[in-house]
Amino acid sequence: MTGPTTRGEAPVADRLRSGAFYNVTRAVLSNRKATVGLGLLLVFVVLSLFPGLVARDSPTADTFTPSLGPSLSHLLGTTSYGQDVFAQLVYGTRESLVIAIVAGLLATALAVFMGVTSAFVGGTVDHALSMVIDTFLVLPAFPLIIVIAAYTKHASNGVLIAVLVVTGWSYGARTLRAQALSLRNRDFIIAARVRRERTWRLITFEVLPNMTSLILASFLGAALFSVLAAAGLQFIGLGNPDAQSWGTMLYWAQNSEALQAGMPLWAIMPGLCLALLGASFALLNYAFDEIGNPALRPVRMRRGR
Q1: Superfamily of domain 22-49+82-304
Q2: Crossing angle, helix 85-121 and helix 212-235, to 10 degrees?
Q3: Which terminal residue of the chain, N or C, has fewer Cβ atoms less than 10 Å from its own Cβ?
């Protein structure tokens, strides 16, 4: 027999159950596609954190026989320069993932700042920020990336990330602004204004928690854009060719004509890893669609039955 519930215990439990983190976790675990996406992402995170536990050879060592096929000693063969392809693939995970996450976070932070500020400040500030957002929206992203990166050829990852952030934040800002506008006249926002809460506190504690799923979806979209755009830049030679990443693997494989020279795995495997990492971000988005679009929930429940 359980004792009486203390006053305030139920509301605390209700708040925990209805919290943003709980909703996101429940949505991910209850969605098969999102669960697969999370599993793929965790695999890449483990590889990036502990590459030495998976690949025993150095990715830069060129002491092996060039152009070897797959074997027990070299699971994916060797390059035309005598380097182990499997080691390069494993060690290249870290840089590719870091670019995706860092550029995605910075682009999302900029999108949140521009979108939410535009919606809540209003007036001249809203018109000015909306004009900036719309300007970046109509610019062709990838050609602009190529032009900017061409002026910083063989630049560091910091410059590459900066280029991706500048060209990848506007779509998320437009979406977040629309969501913030829909929240601006809700009852709980009006009540907070009546209490004369400061704008920064209103946004931080009232608005952003109600936009969690959309912010996470914006991050995943920005991360997906970043990892593919960065690999594209590295592939055409606008990144650092000495860096260890999947894009530089594709660059050197293309320069060495790996497919024609009988080393297809050198070109295929980094492309496959890029596709799987992109798929993990896309699959995770299904969970956040479910949170942001309640109409999708009964449809998925009926399909599950």
Answers
A1: MetI-like (1.10.3720.10)
A2: 130
A3: N
Give φ, ψ of 78 to 5 degrees: -125, 165
The model's pTM is 0.80
User: What would the pLDDT profile of 242-293 be if each residue is shown by its tens digit?
Assistant: 888 999 999 999 999 888 888 999 999 999 999 999 999 988 877 776 666 6
Amino acid identity of residue 297, one-letter, is: R
